[in-house]
Task: inverse folding
């Protein structure tokens, strides 16, 4: 999809990390429990069993990791998998299917169904409505997630949705500014900002606003945009011309001062930039998932205002906070309406950490110690003595 080669190599390592993680859980994650009996003669236990055939619909922005995070857990749970990859990146899934065969996977355990964009709706409907598919796991936009949610209703299918985000990146008064800037560069510009958990609304305390913007702008202006295969490239293209047009249109809605390199935008490349939005929290940039290398920076004056602004969205995937006040970090983490909160870090995704959101950012969790449970049913077995 054009991401810099160094990032692509990093995704290979990240994506591969889910496989040994879930393989290890075959020994521990499939266990049940011995339960407290409700009557003296009962001996109840719970066991976990595979849910059945799992359909996975995966996105283009992380075409390896999003497959292994889902399929690795499902296969470890004992399920067969159908993967419908994005029409923008089908070759990755097809190659993974070939590797599965070479690794000795039984026929039918991991299946790939690529299709053209115009056929994707029909494929989605078929998977949702099929009584042979027991579970659907989808990563993508909230709009499509809602559609799939409705289509799965008739079969009461087990459903896992990892959807859009509008992540706040909050820099409090006590924060280490240099560390916050470094974290922002990672949280915002990785994969050219094309990530559901990318920093989308950068909220900086008014006392640090000028310093933060100045330091962030210096870092941003050093980013090199171009073909991901070229040496030294730090920001690749947007995935296609539609993405370029959407981001360009969104930029056109803002009249705020922008700091960027003198490079001109040329599809599918968008020059990274910092947009100084100040106290304007009504701009379309504030309420839209940008999915591009645009860093709008807003000001706030109090902790209460920062939390209110952060929670002012229907999304709830991930939030970032930077502070050196331990009590504040704990307090704000609890007040934020998000499935994940990164404290003084620009990236926290790993095979060990559960990934998922609140509100319209999704249902369920992937990875961590609970990801395998999305693909299992719990059964009570009660023995009478």
Result:
């Amino acid at each position: 999809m054009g991401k810099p080669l160094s990032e692509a190599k990093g995704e290979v390592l990240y994506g591969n990390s889910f496989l040994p993680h879930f393989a290890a859980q075959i020994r521990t994650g499939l266990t049940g429990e011995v339960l407290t009996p409700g009557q003296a003669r009962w001996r109840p236990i719970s066991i976990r069993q595979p849910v059945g055939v799992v359909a996975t619909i995966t996105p283009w922005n992380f075409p390896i990791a999003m497959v292994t995070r889902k399929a690795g857990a499902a296969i470890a749970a004992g399920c067969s998998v159908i993967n419908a990859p994005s029409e923008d990146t089908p070759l990755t899934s097809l190659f993974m299917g070939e590797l599965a065969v070479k690794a000795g996977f039984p026929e039918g355990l991991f299946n790939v169904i690529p299709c053209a964009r115009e056929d994707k709706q029909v494929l989605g409907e078929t998977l949702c409505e099929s009584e042979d598919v027991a579970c659907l796991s989808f990563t993508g936009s909230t709009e499509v997630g809602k559609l799939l949610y409705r289509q799965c209703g008739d079969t009461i299918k087990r459903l896992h949705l990892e959807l859009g985000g509008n992540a706040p990146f909050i820099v409090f008064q006590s924060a280490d500014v240099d560390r916050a800037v470094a974290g922002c560069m990672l949280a915002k510009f990785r994969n050219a900002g094309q990530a559901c958990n990318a920093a989308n609304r950068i909220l900086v305390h008014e006392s640090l606003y000028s310093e933060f913007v100045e330091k962030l702008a210096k870092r941003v202006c050093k980013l090199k945009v171009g073909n991901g295969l070229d040496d030294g490239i730090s920001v690749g293209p947007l995935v296609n011309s539609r993405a370029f047009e959407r981001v360009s249109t969104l930029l056109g809605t803002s009249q705020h001062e922008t700091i960027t390199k003198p490079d001109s935008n040329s599809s599918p490349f968008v020059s990274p930039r910092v947009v100084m939005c100040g106290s304007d929290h009504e701009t379309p940039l504030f309420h839209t998932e940008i999915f591009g290398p645009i860093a709008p920076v807003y000001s706030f004056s109090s902790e209460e205002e920062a939390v209110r602004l952060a929670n002012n969205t229907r999304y709830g995937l991930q939030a970032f906070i930077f502070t050196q006040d331990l009590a504040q970090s704990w307090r704000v983490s609890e007040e934020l309406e998000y499935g994940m909160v990164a404290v003084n870090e620009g990236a926290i995704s790993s095979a060990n950490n559960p990934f998922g959101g609140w509100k319209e950012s999704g249902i369920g969790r992937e990875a961590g110690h609970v990801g395998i449970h999305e693909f299992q049913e719990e059964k009570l077995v009660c023995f009478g003595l």
